[in-house]
Amino acid sequence: MRRFKFALANILEYRKQSEQELKQQYLRLRAEVQGKEVGIRRLLDEKKDLMEVTEHTVGRMQVQRRYLLGIDQEVTLLKNAELELKSASEIKLKELIKAQQERKVLEKLEEKQAGEYRLLVKRQEQAQLDEMANRNRKAI
User: Fold this and answer.
1) How many percent of the chain have pLDDT more than 70?
2) Considering Cα of 6, then 11, then 17, then 20, what sign does the dihedral take?
3) For residues 112 and 32, what is the distance between their CA atoms, to the nearest angstrom?
4) How many Cα atoms within 13 Å fall on the side-chain side of residue 38?
5) What pLDDT shows up at residue 23?
6) Domain assignments of the chain as residue spans, ordered by start
7) What is the C-alpha to C-alpha distance for residues 16 and 100, in angstroms, rounded to an integer?
8) Are 15 and 102 spatial neighbours (Cβ–Cβ below 8 Å)?
9) How confident is the model at residue 140, as a pLDDT?
10) Cystine design at 89: which of 29, 65, 136, 137 (Cβ 3.0–4.6 Å)?
11) How far apart are CA 66 and CA 63, in angstroms?
């Protein structure tokens, strides 16, 4: 008897590949979020260090103030970018979860059909064995 072949194997394979792509995209987004967080922490540490330095000349104080304002603006931009990336990663995570659920549905269907196939094969084998046993009885 021929081996079991899942009729939706191509669809299952496509869903697995799609899930892998979504997973890669999600991981890329999470890495970008972490990069933004590192950048924000670095800038805030730099700002903290600059706040501890006291300048005694007006010109140096003005330069320091402008630099601190620039840091604040850059932190704001990074925080906005981080929020957008977090939102995108949450959306991608939901897509990934949905893709996993769709894949699992097909895998369960495949398992069920494979089990039914194995049961059918066992029944057919048993019927052949019974038939052979009946032939031997009639021959005797």
Assistant:
1) 96
2) negative
3) 41
4) 6
5) 97
6) 9-103
7) 8
8) yes
9) 58
10) 29
11) 5
0.85 exceeded by the pTM?
no
88-130 tens-digit pLDDT: 999 999 999 999 999 999 999 999 999 999 999 999 999 988 8
For 56, phi and psi rounded to 5 degrees? -100, -10
Q: Report the pLDDT value the prediction gives residue 139, as an integer from 0 to 100.
A: 62
Position 69, amino acid: L
